[in-house]
Amino acid sequence: MESKETRTKVASQDVRPIEQVQSSERSETQADIPAVSCRGVTVSYMQKPVLRDVTVDIPKGKLSSITGPNGAGKTTLLRAILGLVPMDAGEIRVLGHPVEMSRRLIAYVPQTETVDWDFPITVEEVVMMGRYPHVGALGRIKSEDRTVVQQALVTVGMEEYSKRHIRQLSGGQQQRVFIARALAQQAEMMILDEPFTGIDASTEQALFQLIGELTKQGKTLVIVNHNLSLLERFDFVVLLNEHVIGAGTPEEVVTPELLQMTYGGRMVLISHVERMLREGSIDVRR
Questions:
Q1: Would you say 6 and 35 are in contact if contact means Cβ atoms under 8 Å apart?
Q2: What are the C-alpha distances in Å from 252 to residues 10, 37, 65, 68, 236?
Q3: All residues at 6 or more sequence positions from 219 whose CB lies less than 8 Å from its CB, including other chains
Q4: Which of 14, 159, 184, 262 could serve as 153's disulfide partner, Cβ 3.0–4.6 Å?
Q5: What is the DSSP code string of 135-198?
Q6: What does the alpha-carbon distance between residue 74 and residue 238 come to, in Å, rounded to a whole number?
Q7: Which residues contact 124 (CB under 8 A, 6 or more apart)?
Q8: Which DSSP category does 131 fall into?
Q9: C-beta atoms surrounding 51 within 10 Å
């Protein structure tokens, strides 16, 4: 019989790709509904499958990581959750709603490398964009919208930079501004695409502190993250390589067996580099 646990654990003596199983006997209370529920999701680009039969439940009110090698389909999965790419098969529900009915429930923080930093816009104006789902792109900005924007800037510690051009900020400050924009949207869930890329260790720590404060407030955060050394800081981890290799707490799925299944031969090199970093054999300041 199928397990009635919300997540299927992978035992070390029986390492297999896992699929999350939900009991049909559970009552569909609001507390039971996951933040994101994917069932059999398949997505292709140019007739080449990028995601294959992805089935996973991402919990609500937690900090979750989607982790895997380059080309594993991590960003594609985010885009499918956001309703930005068509699916060949499967279904995605966000907080119990179909994707097409849930866009206002999700705030998206893109990779900084995808942003046009030459566009003439201030920090305050970027954060105000988070209010567009409420007022419309051509709608009238009200005093309450400005209050929400100011509160968001205060939350991320960027209120003193509100009139500064976005390109004048450091990478970490830019990430904070986009998180403020997401907060201004007042969405129930935030999706961040590799927010720790290209920032130093102190900025990474500051961002994690901010993210931790948001999860304590009950926010759901889903982050694409390629840094294996950070996984222990997440509540929930999805190991992805075109399909779900494992999903659960870090203790359940961040194991040598599942990491090997996720990364294949690249795992040997990754382990070697991470060991050298821990031992100080690599100068990361160069």
A1: no
A2: 7, 20, 14, 16, 9
A3: 61, 188, 189, 190
A4: 159
A5: H-TTSPPPHHHHHHHHHHHHHTT-GGGTTSBGGGS-HHHHHHHHHHHHHHHT-SEEEEESTTTT
A6: 10
A7: 149, 153, 162, 163
A8: G
A9: 26
Question: 274: exposed, middle or buried (C-beta count within 10 Å: 0-12, 13-18, 19+)?
Answer: middle
Q: How many residues does the chain have?
A: 286
Q: Which residues touch 13 (CB under 8 Å, ≥6 apart)? A: none
Question: Which amino acid is it at 47?
Answer: Q
Average pLDDT of span 22-51:
78
Beta carbons within 10 angstroms of residue 215's beta carbon: 17
Instruction: Give yes or no for a contact between 213 and 221, defined as CB atoms under 8 angstroms apart.
Output: no
* 263 burial via Cβ count (<10 Å: 0-12, 13-18, 19+): buried
Helix (H) or strand (E) holding 243: strand 243-248
Mean pLDDT of the chain: 82
Per the CB < 8 A criterion, the answer to whether 38 and 99 are in contact is no
Task: State the first-to-last Cα distance of the chain, in angstroms, to the nearest integer.
Answer: 55
Nearest alpha-carbon partner for 111 in 198, 204, 169, 190: 198
> What tokens appear for 194 in the block?
């590799």
Beta-carbon contacts of residue 262 (< 8 Å; ≥ 6 apart): 67, 68, 69, 72, 239, 240, 241, 245, 246
Q: pLDDT for 185-243, tens place per residue? A: 988 899 999 888 877 788 888 888 888 888 888 889 999 998 888 999 999 999 999 99
Mean pLDDT, residues 113-133: 84
